[in-house]
Design goal:
Largest sheet: 4 strands, antiparallel
Strand order of the largest sheet: 1-2-4-3
Distance between the termini: 76 Å
Number of strands: 8
Oligomer: single chain
Helix content: 55-70%
CATH architecture of the largest domain: Roll
Radius of gyration: 34 Å
CATH class of the largest domain: Alpha Beta
CATH superfamily of the largest domain: Homing endonucleases
Strand content: 15-25%
Number of helices: 11
Shape: rod-shaped
């Protein structure tokens, strides 16, 4: 049985099926992906780059784009890890590693991100897409715990990457950074910021899915809250009606409702004795019909306050 596809995988697979008409955007994507994902190895005093990923579609995309831009310098293989049945896709770059790092202005020692690589919104979008492809994750919109993060191995680099969000025009994203074991993690939790990020990096379909699920759930939650509120109000109405009916019975025993001087108070006392479940609005409507004059919910409330004072005096 296949494992269910995570929402993070949905986002990543959309990104690798997009058409990148701008080579600058694509180079920015590769720059971020290689900076975050690559491991440098040395063979005969030459630098090699090794890129490993569990997602075959992402690896094949990166492999094909490197070869498309730099002329067939990458090699791809795969390996299975023990009994976990996990398959890792491995991209190896040999002789061209240093020239690619120079062209994409990648430095594994410094945390800085070159302004030449991220010089406008288009290239910033590409760079953030590459960062998410390399180590991003996002919770399913079916959960109420909204969370998107990018895990990095350098705190200074994490700070530089977080600054890119503010440089993007009309971005409302304010990421935070936390340390988790040996990683620096950029994250944000607000649903509107997550949706904005998905649009920013080009995952438009995933954003639509995220928003549709979120709106449906929020609507259901609102309906539940309203239903719960209605139940709570009904309970309060019934409890108040029973208490008021008890007070009217005591007034009738001690004084006699017919002897209450105020006509409206007298009529209201009879109404409450007849039905202890009517709301204040329903009583106001009945009183208006009885007297031929408009009576509001507020009027009924004040009449009950006056009757309650009478009840307290008689009880005392």
């Amino acid at each position: 049985m296949k494992n269910p596809v995570s929402f993070a995988q949905v986002v990543k697979e959309e990104l690798v099926t997009n058409i990148y008409e701008s080579e600058d955007r694509l180079r920015a994507l590769l720059s971020a992906y290689i900076r975050i994902n690559a491991i440098m190895t040395f063979n005969n005093k030459k630098t090699n780059l090794v890129l490993k990923n569990e997602n075959g579609k992402v690896s094949k995309f990166i492999y094909s784009q490197i070869n498309s831009i730099y002329g067939g310098v990458a090699h791809m293989s795969y390996m299975s890890k023990g009994n976990t049945k996990k398959t890792y896709y491995i991209i190896t770059i040999d002789e061209a590693s240093e020239s690619i790092m120079d062209d994409l202005e990648i430095s594994f020692l410094e945390g800085k991100i070159s302004k030449n690589i991220v010089r406008n919104d288009d290239t910033i979008s590409g760079y953030l897409a590459g960062a998410f492809l390399a180590s991003g994750s996002i919770n399913s919109p079916l959960t109420s715990n909204y969370h998107l993060e990018i895990s990095l191995n350098n705190e200074n680099y994490a700070k530089w990457l977080s600054k890119l969000f503010a440089k993007y025009k009309n971005s409302n994203i304010e990421p935070k950074i936390i340390s988790r074991r040996d990683k620096a993690v950029i994250y944000f939790k607000k649903s509107d910021q997550i949706a904005n990020f998905l649009i920013m990096i080009g995952a438009v379909s995933a954003c639509m899915e995220f928003e549709n699920v979120r709106v449906d759930r929020d609507f259901a939650n609102t309906a539940n809250r309203l239903a719960n509120g209605d139940m709570a109000n009904m309970k309060k109405t019934l409890e108040a009606g029973k208490r008021q009916a008890e007070e009217m019975r005591l007034i009738d025993e001690k004084l006699g409702i017919k002897n209450i001087p105020n006509l409206k108070e007298r009529e209201l006392a009879y109404m409450r004795l007849e039905n202890d479940s009517l709301s204040l609005i329903e009583l106001a409507n009945k009183m208006s019909e009885k007297t031929g004059k408009p009576v509001s919910k507020s009027n009924i409330n004040h009449l009950f306050i006056s009757l309650h004072k009478l009840y307290e005096r008689l009880k005392g």
